Amino acid sequence: MNEERDGIGLLREVVTEVAASLPPPRRRPKAARPIVWGLAAAAALVAVLVAGRFLLPREVPQHPRAPVEVLALRLGGRDARVRVIDSPAAGSIVVVAVPGATPEPRSEGGIR
Amino acid sequence: MAPSNDLPGPKKEDLTALALRARQGDAGAADRLWAALRPRLSRVALAIGIPPDDVPDLVQDALFAAHRRLESFDPGKGTIEAWLSTSLVRRARNSFRAERRRRRLAERFGVLIRWGARPRPMDAVEARLTLTRLLGALTEGQREVIALYEIGELTAEDTGRLLGITAGGVRSIARDARARLARAALEVRPPLEARR
């Protein structure tokens, strides 16, 4: 019985000694595992892309326009104002007004 | 019969009271609770056979998981020590499985992989060697019983419930383990005492 007590006593002794020599934990407590943050970031990115696909204005308008008008929009940018004037003399005349640009007055036909 | 708690620190009923206050959001009580339980859990983890270098992180993980799940602690079902020991034993078993996988990998590739080897004071090194020799005399099941029942000072009933065996089985396994430890102690005690 004494031998048994010596065995368990020695185990207690060395366990206490080793426990006292242990360093502090290396890892900080984690709020969440990295994979959780990775999945959350991926989901947020997908949400932004989907929202952008459906909510943001597109470069080319959805409604049908004449090819020359679409070309004018591409040249003038999304904010360009496009007006098509049919003229029997000159055919279709496209006027592109770009915000910020100062249009030069033109004398021909009074069109600016 | 497990020995009484002769170590400094809050008593068992105080720990349960602290746990209940921590569960209600008392941050100071939570800090004192984990600080009081950390040394005990470290001793249990060492006695189970976790490598000493891995013990601080394993205990930290167990404490943090307990902190997050503290609202599920029910004092009617057992002590806070028993509740925490469940998580510790599960993590220890996972750690053993991971260690076995690492060893198989190392053997397969014929290399010796060492992590985190750091110089230590001679006393600590000798204590670790003694601990390794003592635990080497026990089976994995015996180590769990000794760690929880003798070192962790859980009751035989709590230990049995945690490990899925009867209280009588716990006492029987502990008796065999103590006999093995006694024989192992005869081999390691002389050099340990000779240095003192």
In short:
The complex is a heterodimer of chains A (112) and B (196). Helix content of chain A is 46%, strand content 12%.
The biggest beta sheet of chain B, please? none
Question: What structural class do you assign from the helix and strand content of chain B?
Answer: mainly alpha
Share of helical residues of chain A: 40-55%
Total DSSP helices of chain A: 3
Walk me through this protein's architecture:
The complex is a heterodimer of chains A (112) and B (196). With 112 residues, chain A is α+β, with helices and mostly antiparallel strands. Chain A has three helices and two strands. Chain B starts with 11 loop residues before the first helix and ends with a helix. Chain B is built from eight helices and no strands. Chain B has 196 residues and is mainly α. In chain B, helix 2 crosses helix 3 and helix 6 (140-151) crosses helix 8. Chain B is 72% helix and 0% strand. The interface between A and B is medium-sized, with 23 and 39 residues.
Task: List key phrases describing it.
heterodimer, A: 112 residues, alpha+beta, two-stranded antiparallel sheet, B: 196 residues, mainly alpha, 8 helices, globular, disordered N terminus
What's the layout of helices and strands?
The complex is a heterodimer of chains A (112) and B (196).
Chain A: H1 2-20, H2 34-55, H3 67-76, E1 81-87, E2 91-97
Antiparallel strand pairs in A: 1-2
Chain B: H1 12-23, H2 27-48, H3 55-68, H4 80-109, H5 122-136, H6 140-151, H7 156-163, H8 167-194
Helix pairs in contact in B: 1-2, 2-3, 2-4, 2-6, 3-4, 5-8, 6-7, 6-8, 7-8
